[in-house]
UniProtKB/TrEMBL annotation:
Name used for this protein in its record: Transposase
InterPro entries xref list: Homeodomain-like_sf (IPR009057), Tscrpt_reg_LuxR_C (IPR000792)
Organism: Bacillus benzoevorans
BP terms from Gene Ontology: regulation of DNA-templated transcription
One Pfam family matching this protein: HTH_29
Length: 63
């Protein structure tokens, strides 16, 4: 099982550094398919939050 900090590192390498899935897999030792899975999960959850009308999830302040 992968540690949370390793998963965060995978996502940060992809989002901040713009590294490819293969580069991330090589540098972290995490299988490329696992890297792809984590990126897809993150993007799916991000889209759900963006499409949500829930002000708590979207960070909108209700007055």
């Amino acid at each position: 099982m992968i540690e949370l900090s390793k998963k965060q590192n995978v996502l940060l390498m992809h989002l901040r550094e713009g590294k490819s899935q293969r580069e991330i897999a090589r540098e972290t030792g995490v299988d490329r398919k696992t890297v792809r899975k984590y990126i897809k999960e993150y993007e799916r959850k991000r889209m759900e939050i963006q499409q949500s009308d829930d002000p708590v999830q979207t960070g909108v302040t209700v007055k």
